[in-house]
Batch of 3 targets.
Target 1
Amino acid sequence: MTTRLYHKPVVDFRVGHEEGIGLVFTDRGRPHYIFVTGYDRLGHAKQQNLLMILLVANVGGMLIIIAGWLRVGRFLSPLVSMVDGVQQISGAMHLRLNERNRKDEIARLAMTFNQMLTQLEDTFASQQQFVSHTSHELRTPLTTMLGTLDFAVLRYEPGRHTQQDAGNHAGVDQALGPDQ
């Protein structure tokens, strides 16, 4: 220790719980060493209190973070179930979302989504009905025309024309071409 003191004018050290300081000064050409130790009860008590406060604050902070995480998870669970429901609905339009208590914002969102699905389902049904009716309305005249043409072709004999048949068969001859 004295060799350290010789190179430095002041040295801090610790012996057990006691803290100390050493310094050297020269009087009449001779070095003198002074060592002082002491136990700072108040300082150690404050240090222990500070350590306890930090420990409690860190543990409390972790508990708050965990509780917040669980609470947020509980608040977000209706949204998670809504997303799962929407993914199931994408394959089957007749399904609907659970509207839960019908009072909060999540329930209002589910009700709005269900209304939109009902409107989409009605629109798809109307479109399908329109296509079905249009198809039927187009098939009937086409079937009639094809039947008339088939009958005309079966009845038509080249070379046998009456005055009345001439007007009827002229359109058939044009439609069938010169080789028929």
Target 2
Amino acid sequence: MERPGLALIMGGEGNLAQAIGAELASCGYRWRGLSRRQCDVTSIAAVGNAIERYGPQFIVNCAGITGIDRCARNSSKAHAVNGEGAGIIASMAKHCNIGMVHVSCSDVLFGSNVRANNKIGTRLPDSVYGRSKLFGEQLVRLINPPECLIVRTRWREGSGCIGCIPTFEFSGAYSERSMLMNSDSDSPPYISDIASTIVELIATGETGTFDAIHSANYEPMSTSHMASREIVEMLIALKRAGA
């Protein structure tokens, strides 16, 4: 995505959205964050009006209902915001020919609750949260707006930071463009680290799905390391499923 430009951040009152905005500003972008009250992402008209009013170069979707327990208590709202809302933003971005960055989570693959069926490649998250976020990803990929970037993060509630781990598909249903990890530490990165990495991906024009986000001093994961980690993660998932 070329600079300078205006980024419209949905879910703009959240900590990650604010951190992304600050990082964008430091890289020469202008940005505008919209709260749920300012723009209901489940409303086609609201999203369309926001795009028409601000004329963004791209949208960053940080809007979402988070927390496994919270989503379980209101599954319809979780699917509306995390799933349908992402699809609405993607549709409007494509209609208006503007880019989209969708912030997802690793729970869609390797959250704390993942059900693995006997047939490889047919796993679904057990939690409403994971399923709703997966639904949002699927809609974004299906609609495929311009310069589409999906970034998965892992939230650790109550820790004050966001941690991420590498995740892997059992099958080649689609291809991730890159796997990134913290080369120095296994500790979860802070929000500012996540935001910095997302903005770096935006600034370098990356597209596709990124499954692992890290703190500072990252390196691309080597092919051999990636393969060994994939085997370990597959075995863990199968053990959890009682295979």
Target 3
Amino acid sequence: MWSIDRTWVTSEGPSRWMHRPSLGVCAPNQVDRSTTDPHRGADALDRCAPRNAVDASDVQQGVTRLALVFALVFASCSSPATSTPSASASSRAPQTQAAPPPGEGQAVAIFAGGCFWCMERPFEDLPGVISVLSGYTGGELEGPSYEEVSAGRTGHAEAVRVLYDPSRATYEQLLEVFWHNVDPTQADAQFCDHGTQYRSGIFPIDAEQRRLAEASKARVEQTIPGRIVTEITDAGPFWIAEDYHQDFYRTHPVRYTEYRLGCGRDARLRQIWGDVAGH
């Protein structure tokens, strides 16, 4: 039998389209969808529609575009955020906690190398390193959240806090690991992540660390071409990032690998550092 839209219907469902005569010119209060939708021919029964009508295909196109936006967002070093609170809100409470001081016989080093997911493992692989925490440093806001930092308005950088045994690992060794895992010529960004929160930096906790950091930067300036823009700034509070960021390469290995490859991090590191490039 015939359905209302002139489709031949069998027990198995619609069989084929039948020829439809052209409907002519749409009324002044209607929109001609065939001019914007290549899948609607001039003979489509639903070609003319009220100007304020919402079509199911229009909704589907909107959903498709939204899905694409989410895919692009998740390709970066980030996790879903429900909101971006204002950093200046007077009623705001700290969202993260400051790292505790090191224990007896332990030392701390703080580095920023772009996405902190990618900076944990290189240091954890070094003998003498006790632990590595992802977090935020270099900004003014007390206890910032990931959403606040990722908005780029707090002044913080994504960073790692390396707790180590100075009798087994030296600060100079940590500096070598740091340099070989960053692009020190890239300002306010690292690889595919852009913004001051992804800048590279060394945050010495005392005069000796600053001296060693500045000496190592001078050596790097003589080693690779380009202007070295990595900052050296005295360490301030280090705020521990949310639990889901810690050891991300272990807890989310597939997503971590997809991000790292998609960001071009390893390819760029090899281009800069050759055989001593980080991983």
